[in-house]
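Quick one from the shared queue. A colleague (R.T.) flagged DUF83 domain-containing protein as missing a structural entry in our internal table.

Convert sequence to structure tokens.
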Amino acid sequence: MLNVLVGFLVVILLLAMVIRRNPKTNGDPTQVPQGKSPHVRMGELIYSDEKGEGKTLWDYQWGLKGKPDEVWKNGDKLHVVEVKATHLPEYRTNPYESHKMQLAVYMRLAQVHFKLPVESGEIRYASGQRFKYKWDYSLRNQLWRTIERIRKVDATGNTFVKVKKTQCQRCRYYSVCDKKRFAR
Ligand code: SF4
């Protein structure tokens, strides 16, 4: 479990790096999931990192940075797309939470960078599944709470899940993780 948490931490730190601590906003968590995406009117492609040449987007207030795969503008609203080269197992009816939070980071970054409201975001897996989310109070708050938890773990070294030494020894982050010393 901690493995998953730290894995997620790495995702957030690397793909949407927490560069600054602080703000308490009135986000409100929760998700607005939805299985397969309904049709989305895409509009105009205004940002793409398809070839790795997209500029890094920053959000100094929440302390995030990252590069979405695609940002589309439809009227005065944005739609953000995260493309996964990986397949999602057929038995799964929802994306991995880390992927969902990654998309949420990009939705926040798109909103801040383009100064336009984000209407929705979408995860596309190589296996064909698509999942659409609204950028609403729920998702914003879920992202903010996740950032807070990561910062707390990062600052204190205390995790809220237990991990055993034997789990650490099998963990892919073992060589670089400084939290393994808390394992018992
Ligand atoms: S080495 Fe242990 S504490 Fe560190 S990420 Fe892996 S399982 Fe978690």
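Residues 4-39 have pLDDT under 50 and may be disordered.
The chain has four helices and seven strands.
Added to the table.
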